[in-house]
Amino acid sequence: MENIQVWAVILDESALQDELYQRALTFVDAESQAKIKKFYHRVDSYRTLIGRLLVRRMLVKKGISLSQMTFATTQSGKSYLTAQNSNPPIAYNVTHDNNVIAMVVGPGRTNPPAFGLGIDVMKTRVPGKSSINEFIEVVGDQLSQQEHTILQAASTDDEKTRQFFWMWTLKEAYTKAIGMGLGFDFKRVEFHPQERLVKVDGQIPVGWKFRMFVLKDGEDQYQGVCADFMGNSEQAEVLPENIEGNSSWLSVEEGVPFLNTAMSVLHT
Ligand SMILES: CC(C)(COP(=O)(O)OP(=O)(O)OC[C@H]1O[C@@H](n2cnc3c(N)ncnc32)[C@H](O)[C@@H]1OP(=O)(O)O)[C@@H](O)C(=O)NCCC(=O)NCCS
């Protein structure tokens, strides 16, 4: 298992029946169930439930039965598989936003036990009713000066929105790969999307590979980035955006078929 894989699920909330939810819930551990049930909105429960089922189905496919899997989280909340015998060990990370849930899986190369793999996905849309300029003003202190300059030079608001979400999802993927999430100052990570150039604390980091991807949900578009700390001595590489269906490492399923196949795989 040399390379990473990304599995994404696209939810159509209206197609999700309560019976399916209750049944799917029985395939995750009691701690996950408690977390999932706490959400006020059912769609939030679904996102976390599907994220956890993506991990469990992947592990079954790799020969680890549901009863053999045990999980733990780091102090900052990054989940990992404990007591694993796989060689190389299995690394994974999960993200969700609106209708999309995605998991990255790959060889655990560096920084056990949670390893240096991270993923983030976001819908390409300014939340609420604000404009992209208003939104950038709100989160602006988490962007570097050069990122502000790039955004100011964007020719249209749509272009600016896309550039912004590349910057943001790369920052999140990087900080999730190192396991710190929002505990790491986002301003320290700088991304120039057109040049595909990443800097951390002003330097191109060594040993990293980033992958940009795009998913479509009807008219809506999502942008995502995977961050993989390979631990080699090469300067960070950013692989360009892969449109869904055009990539050997990215696969997409719909919510209901995903839940049905996950349950049948986990049952055996
Ligand atoms: C991780 C974090 C960035 C998630 O942000 P987000 O954009 O809202 O969420 P995403 O959808 O991309 O990711 C959510 C998933 O990230 C994973 N996750 C949680 N904490 C994580 C961490 N520290 N590193 C990597 N992944 C993490 C979980 O699998 C979670 O899914 P689940 O809760 O449904 O199981 C944010 O919750 C965070 O920063 N948490 C840690 C903060 C912290 O404790 N800092 C302490 C200082 S080190």
Automatic annotation (TrEMBL):
Q: Please, which domain of life does this record's source organism belong to?
A: Eukaryota
EC no. given is 2.7.8.7
Task: Indicate yes or no for the key word Lyase.
Answer: no
Q: Which keywords has UniProt assigned to this entry? A: Transferase
Any one GO cellular component localisation term in the record: cytosol
Q: Domain (4'-phosphopantetheinyl transferase): give its ranges.
A: 116-195
Domain annotation 4'-phosphopantetheinyl transferase N-terminal: ranges: 20-103
InterPro entries per UniProt: 4-PPantetheinyl_Trfase_dom (IPR008278), 4-PPantetheinyl_Trfase_dom_sf (IPR037143), AASDHPPT_N (IPR055066), P-Pant_transferase_sf (IPR050559)
Q: Name one Pfam family in it.
A: ACPS
Q: What biological-process terms (Gene Ontology) are attached?
A: lysine biosynthetic process via aminoadipic acid
MF GO annotations:
holo-[acyl-carrier-protein] synthase activity; magnesium ion binding
Q: Which PANTHER family match?
A: L-AMINOADIPATE-SEMIALDEHYDE DEHYDROGENASE-PHOSPHOPANTETHEINYL TRANSFERASE, PHOSPHOPANTETHEINE TRANSFERASE
Q: What is this protein called?
A: holo-[acyl-carrier-protein] synthase
